[in-house]
Write a structure and sequence with these properties.
alpha+beta, single chain, 190 residues, 3-stranded antiparallel β-sheet
């Protein structure tokens, strides 16, 4: 079946929230803050899914970034490549490097859990042309906030024409991109 990154991000946001998510583009008009759109008459934001099944889905998505040997756990435990548009290796010794190091601590410090304990995801690799030598990789998921009361952030990434022979798969390629975006957001979250 076909899907877009927007559909994947909406699915992740819905699983994270436990209710339908209705995206909208305009948050305000001039100085007037606009509220989120109201559901159509007769439509509910509630999901028609048992709570235990939703919990099992969330647990499985948490394991993708955290459990040893999972499809994105190695990626999430590794250092980022890009932070806030800069190569991490070049800014590692400065303030950004200190913030990233604090987020990457193996144990919670000052109540802050490492990013892989707050990231949920699902990786995927599709072979659009059987035996064609390339595939499409994807990652979708969300990040729980750094601080209590913060906002969740849902995301999806899809990259096509990945080289199978080079071991390029969704968890490795898209997981790395999403990890770097999550790290970047957390370094700004103060």
């Amino acid at each position: 079946w076909s899907t877009s990154t927007m559909h994947l991000a909406l699915s992740s946001a819905t699983i994270a929230k436990g209710a339908k998510v209705r995206p909208y583009i305009i948050a305000g008009w001039g100085r007037e803050r606009l509220g989120s759109p109201k559901p159509p008459a007769g439509d509910s934001d509630q999901l028609n899914i048992r709570a235990d099944l939703l919990a099992a889905i969330r647990l499985g998505m948490k394991a993708v970034t955290e459990a040893p040997g999972a499809t994105a756990s190695g990626v999430y435990a590794a250092e980022p490549v890009m932070i806030l548009g800069e190569e991490y290796a070049k800014v590692k010794g400065g303030d950004i490097g200190k913030r990233v190091a604090a987020i990457r601590q193996a144990n919670a410090k000052n109540g802050v859990k490492p990013i892989w304990c707050r990231a949920y995801g699902k990786t995927g690799t599709a072979d659009p042309k059987k035996g064609g030598g390339y595939n499409s990789g994807w990652f979708t998921g969300w990040k729980e906030p750094l601080n209590a009361g913060g906002r969740r952030f849902a995301i999806a990434c899809m990259v096509s024409h990945l080289d199978l022979a080079a071991g390029r798969f969704g968890g490795r390629v898209c997981g790395s991109i999403v990890r770097d975006i999550m790290f970047s957001l957390e370094t700004m979250e103060r």
